[in-house]
Amino acid sequence: MGAQFWPVTENFAAEVGDVDLSQPLSAEDVAAIRSAFDRYAVLVFPGQELSTGQHLDFARHFGPLETSIATHRKDTKLRVVPEIADVSNLTPDNKVWGEKSRQRMFQLGNRLWHSDSTFKHTPAYASLLYARSIPPVGGHTEFTDMRAAYDALPVATKQKIDRLVCEHSIFTSRAKLGYTDFSAEERAAMPPVPQVMVRTIPQTGRKCLYLASHAGRVFGMDDAAGAALIEELMAHATQRQFVYTHRWRVNDLVIWDNRQTLHRGTAFDDLRWKRDVQRATVEDVANSCEQAGLKVDLQATG
Fold first, then answer.
1. Residue 166, beta-bridge partner list
2. Burial 232-244 (b: 16+ CB within 10 A, else e)
3. By Cβ atoms counted within 10 A, which residue in 41, 54, 151, 273 is the most buried?
4. Contact, 166 vs 217, CB < 8 A?
5. What single DSSP character describes residue 61?
6. 57 in helix, strand or coil?
């Protein structure tokens, strides 16, 4: 018996059974998982006991791996390998972080709706988050279906936004929380990048909104109008009817398609409970504007 898929809803999020990700996968299972990933955009693999190497090996079935942005920071040691994004609340010696720690202030941005790495020139395609320990309450992850959100827009809005491009920056999302403590070296290492507002997914032909808390302005629009448009679309896309909430269990691995979803972590008592979740991230094939054949004037304003 190969991998089995159990949808949470008809077209968004599914649980996967009868597969052990610690073992080499057959070509048939890989193909079935890839096909289900295109359809459901979020896949949940419960009960997976994985080493870091096995976690990364599974991720490589989807493409080349990113290096964590934590490598740009010089104020802390990595707790995990550079190919893993450490989204835990733990210090390098595996203790719960302090209330005023820089790591905590930076990672609170994960509670904003976002798509991983849209602030990089080549954004993320797939993210694979693995739960090694979880708090007894809280700390869920919410996902929203950006395909369904796009489909529900009025025709006039679809026409308005079809070829628009946003500027994305990690510093934009952190500034929304009042956190601006970045060095000139860190800012130079992660300059703003353009990303389209609407994507067409090659595997399915479906269109979806492509936004994030990292989006700060719209090229060709004045700043106020662009920000208002982004805020309006984000509010529309994150309505409850588009959202799946994942309540974590230890040894869950969840993979999502960053092109077709937004996600955010929900609050928990992060000064009390350990939440050790680690993410492998697969790069997209190119910048979203390049994939859409759009050339962008990075200096353009309204």
1. 195, 218
2. ebbebbbeeebbb
3. 41
4. yes
5. G
6. helix
